[in-house]
Amino acid sequence: MSASHLSSAGLALALGLSGCGTDHAATRPAPETPAAASPSRAELQRAVEQSLAKLEGLQLVSGPSLVLKLEDNARGCYGVPCPGDAQGQKAYDAELARQSTRLAAFVEQLDACNSGHCYVSSPQTAQEAVDALNALEIIRVSALATAEPKNNPSCYNLPCGEDIEAARAENARRERVTFTAASMLKER
Predict the structure, then answer these.
(1) Which residues are CB-neighbours of 119 under 8 A, at least 6 positions away?
(2) pLDDT for 46-92, tens place per residue?
(3) How many domains does the chain have?
């Protein structure tokens, strides 16, 4: 045997490429791993409710509702598919899953911006912030939550100037936070 032949044979043995003891492992298909089960409608609805509750807790928007883009036939029974409409049920569940994920990401982004972890963009008006939120087509809101000045006993139980200014500043902050979060998500 030549030296090159021995070194090639030695390399094959070292790498386990010889036919001895392999039990044809390389030719057997890999065992199938079970696919992750899709969340049930109840789990998705719970996730949406939790996200909406967290959104309400941030006190930035008033009355948010989830936007679901569905064909008319998938909304035949008060906005949801009718019982027995398998195709409508499937479309509804797929859209709910898609929007549940988007809503969770939106609330996470809004929470980060509310905590001061975002660059700041300023809208011209509160309505511009509302329009930016609605343009994402994740939630629908009619208005931002507004801070009202508190009555102060020092000012005859009416809001003092500093209370009015504090409420204005808080409302402007809410406009910036919501507009910034909407702008950041739009760029994704």
Answers:
(1) 180
(2) 999 999 999 999 999 998 999 999 887 778 888 888 888 889 889 99
(3) 1
